[in-house]
Amino acid sequence: MEKKGERMGRMPSFDRSVVVDAARDVFWQRGYAEAGIAELEEATGLTRSSIYHAFGSKRGLFDAVLAAYLDDVVRTRLRPLGGGDAGALEAYVDEMRTAIAEDAPRARLGCLLLNAGSSPLASDDADVRALVSGYAAEMRAAIRSAVADRRPDLAPDAVDALAAVCASLVVAGLTLARADRDASLATLASIPTTLESWARP
Q1: Other C-beta atoms within 10 Å of 197: how many?
Q2: pLDDT < 50 stretches in the chain
Q3: How many CB atoms lie within 10 A of CB 25?
Q4: What is the SS3 assignment for 158?
Q5: CA dihedral 40, 44, 48, 52 (to 10 degrees)
Q6: How far is it, in rounded angstroms, from Cα 185 to Cα 151?
């Protein structure tokens, strides 16, 4: 008798997004290197052969997870920044702080892309480095636009400097979320104060 995963892997109606989302949690919790195929099989309901058939390899599945995370999570959160709302950056930070403070399962694991960027995989893999670098550039640009909306009194070079500080605080807060929730919350909480207090040069 065929296993459920084997049937699932051959079905034309195979829901790739559901499998990618299930695999995301495994990679998020364990990291790429430590995530085992058996764990991925259990989480996705697919057999090893079905995973390889659909994604080419464990690495192919991980690439699909990172791409989906960038589109579905990161860009969704960044999109309101720079849209003309002076409070957009504070709202963005508040959303992150609330998720971390409430110990939401995914929030307490930090940022999947930042985790990937600091893993041994990134040191050996140019594609992962490029993806993480691209994410960082998108985030910095979105925060820069939000800072310009929030502080129209500042000259462009001062906006650049303030945005760089705020982006660094966001990265630090997300990085700390996995190891030290209190420090993460304190770091993110400093962003509104920094926005308000930054003086003209």
Answers
A1: 8
A2: 1-13
A3: 17
A4: helix
A5: -100
A6: 23
CB 135 within 8 A of CB 77: no
Which domains are seen in the chain, by residue range?
1-69 (1.10.10.60), 79-201 (no CATH)
pLDDT for 152 equals 95
Q: What is the pLDDT of residue 10?
A: 46
Q: For position 128, what pLDDT does the model report?
A: 86
- Assess contact for 158 and 200: CB atoms under 8 A: yes
User: For residues 67 and 132, is the Cβ–Cβ distance under 8 A?
Assistant: no
Indicate the burial class of 147 (C-beta count within 10 angstroms; 0-12, 13-18, 19 or more).
Answer: buried
**CA separation for the pair 99, 157 (Å, rounded):** 33
pLDDT in tens, 17-28: 999 999 999 999
Question: Helix axis angle, 156-176 relative to 181-197, nearest 10°?
Answer: 170
Query: Which pLDDT score is estimated for 14?
Result: 59
- What is the reported pLDDT for 93? 95
CA 63, 68, 73: angle at the middle one, nearest 5? Answer: 135
Of the CA atoms within 13 Å of residue 31, those in its CB half-sphere come to: 12
